Amino acid sequence: MKNNVKYSIIVSSVTVEEQEYKSYGIACTNNDKVKAFIEDVSVDEKAVEKLVKLFNRLHLDPAQLQDAIEDALS
Question: What is the pLDDT of residue 1?
């Protein structure tokens, strides 16, 4: 079976103490169906872009997304 897993950035708006900011997360799709997503990974868009590129290059299993993000941020 062909691996059609693709990771991409998702953007959300988060409000903390009445201050609104953009936060970046990661979504995983397989054959255009969302398999996993994590919102509010970081406010650093470039850092999240690097993770997305890495996950795509490694063909990360969607079940490992949460752990991979936690490892990358620790």
Answer: 40
